[in-house]
Specification:
Layout (H helix, E strand, L loop, with lengths): L5 H7 L9 H9 L9 H12 L6 H5 L2 H7 L4 H5 L2 H13 L7 H7 L5 H15 L4 H6 L7 H10 L6 H11 L2 H17 L18 H25 L1 H4 L17 H22 L2 H21 L6 H21 L8 H6 L4 H23 L2 H7 L4 H4 L1 H13 L1 H10 L6 H23 L5 H22 L4 H10 L3 H16 L5 H9 L1
Pfam family, one: UbiA
Protein name: Protoheme IX farnesyltransferase, mitochondrial
Subcellular location: Mitochondrion membrane
Amino acid sequence: MLARPPILRSFVLPENTSSVCIRCLRRLSRSPAAVRPFSIRSQRGAVAAAAGRSTFTRDYFWANGTLKETFGRTTRGLRNGSPQSKEAIAAAAAELPRAAPSAKETSQEVPQELPHRRRKRLREESLRKDPPEPESAEASYPIAPDASSRLTTVSSNLPANSIRRLLTTYFSLAKPRLSFLIVLTTTAPYSLYPVPALLAPAATAAPSLSTLTLLFLTTGTALCCSSANALNMLFEPKYDAMMTRTRNRPLVRKLISPTGALLFAIGCGTVGVAALYYGVNPTTAFLGGLNIFLYAGVYTPLKRVSVINTWVGAVVGGIPPLMGWTAAAGQCAQNGTWQELLFGEGSAGGWLLAALLFAWQFPHFNALSWAIRDEYKFAGYRMLCWVNPAQNGRVALRYAILMFPVCFGLTYVGVTDWGFVATSSVINGWMVYKAVQFWREKGHKGTARGLFWASVWHLPIVMVLAMAEKKGLWERIWRGLFGQPESDLLLYGEDEDLDEEEPGVDASVVDRGRLT
């Protein structure tokens, strides 16, 4: 067999063929690269790669002190890739400092994270690492927890057989924050009633109503509200447990038995109606009992039947101002019958104040319910916020606009001065502006929260403005500070002379003339 020339052999075969197996050598001889001229160094590299030999020897790794300490005990595991060596390599690599990626690599390989997505990701990671406690979960709820939920939490942390726990639990049945708001809407019309000057002890003094009657009015109203709220909780603990806002109520958590809640409701209702009957008048007592029936017997079951429940609830909210008006009117009436107190002369102011509270509840509740519309739907409550979201916004806007003619009517019938029309229009305009945003955006983009807080501030501001601009209030204040005008003194003296000179004239006629 003829030997190949040295030059051709140098192109085809490596110098040291003893380290290459026969199979790799044949594969290399059949490849097209075998007949191409290339350097001996490149031949060695190709043969080494084909043979699977690593160019990293033991001396290469020993140059790193950390790796030498890690793998100095065995080199076979490093070569063969045993599990122990892989774990050691991973641990050593984690300890080594990593080089910061360049700006070019970051812009090309890693997409830039938007700020809001980064905040959302960090928030989710923090929640996964540290789940929120029940109290912090309630704090992040779109609606602030009511007083009943807070009192229930306090009651559950007290000793089981303590009197304080029992009183706190019963107090939570009354929904004290809601009851306090209703009492305020009752006392404001009581103070707005135009008391005749006949009740004034002197010509320069402001006429006033009975303080004792006011005490019976506020106490009876608060007890009637407590009875209605307790019955509301008693009738729907199953559905209260489905909503975050109501699942902390005492009957849901079984802090009190249904029998105990029923006895509490009956006791509060009986005492409340009796206080209104004997301390105020029968008409006001009838309105208090009617409110208990409408709220617990009509509004509560109707919530799962039709969206008309919102209108029934608005009627319930409009009755307390009428109660305050009839309580004041009963002290100035001639006969004191329900026809005179509700439909007699001067009763228009009470109905207008009731209409103000009736209209106010729609923008307030429609914005409030929109934030938890999914929970209302899950619990089966028929509310406009999820049944018909478009109508939900229209109804809120419609009744917000109704505030303007109601406030104008209070001035027209003589309850307030004409300045109340201008001042109330400012706050009513703010309410309408928020209602328009709520209607256009259908509750999104924070418009529901904006309308809710506008309604929270609207009611007390309007009530305070009405009491500050009550008809004749500033005239009496001026008269008390600087004395009665001279014309009034002369007129009052002439009346006294008339009484002395003409003893046959009826005194009641003279008194009626003074009132006119």
